[in-house]
Amino acid sequence: MEVFDTSGDGALQPDEFVTIDRFRNQLDALTREEKRLALEAAEEAKKEKAEAEILEAKMTLLNDGPPTAQDKAVSLLPYLFPLMDGLAYGRFLLQNADAANPIVDVIAILYTIYRSIPFSGFVAFFALNILSSVTGINRLVRYNMQQAIFIDIALFFPGLIGGVIGAIGGSNIPTGVSEIGTDAIFVTLLAVLGYCTVSSILGITPDKLPLISQAVTDRMPTIDSFDDELRYIPRQMREEEEEKDKEKDKKDGPK
Prior knowledge:
Elements: H1 20-61, H2 69-74, H3 80-86, H4 91-95, H5 102-116, H6 120-131, H7 139-154, H8 156-169, H9 175-201, H10 212-219, H11 235-252
Helix pairs in contact: 3-7, 6-7, 7-10
């Protein structure tokens, strides 16, 4: 009735009555509109359901859930890699350590086993790099694998800097200075690994290391890293696609 109530007084006046054909046409129009709205609502619900299913599939594919006790324990193992490679910086401290210290004995055994494996450093590097890309592994474990690699790479720079300084100076760095420097590097390494260990045991991602943690975080896949067909899209490719979409929107926008 509201459609025909042109005066807006809530009642049909004599001049507002219409023919049956017009009335029927109006009812048909209203019916079509209701069907259209119902169809749009059904399509929207179907679309939301499909998006929810895709999101659930992505979350299943990407193990970003809270780590289990086993995950926490396994997440500590990658840090043996930089520890073994960093023992060279602790040679002065370890030489002066108590020979009966069980920790030193364990480290010595692990180091012997590590060095007995041909190309152990390369094997560890590639193993951690490959395993860290397996999204079914818990995120904490994958994160620590990547971070262990970055820490190990960081250990390369002190030796490089020392070699450059020695080459520029034309002589070797004094033993006393070298000992203090290597001790400081080893203590820093132990502090870093200690932080990562405690944080991982608590189930907290150790992402507070300057420079290193941010680089690791940038490499970690997220739900947005997968398309609707659950294919992994590297970060650089995603950024390039987003940039192309922005450029396209600018071109297609109002001139």
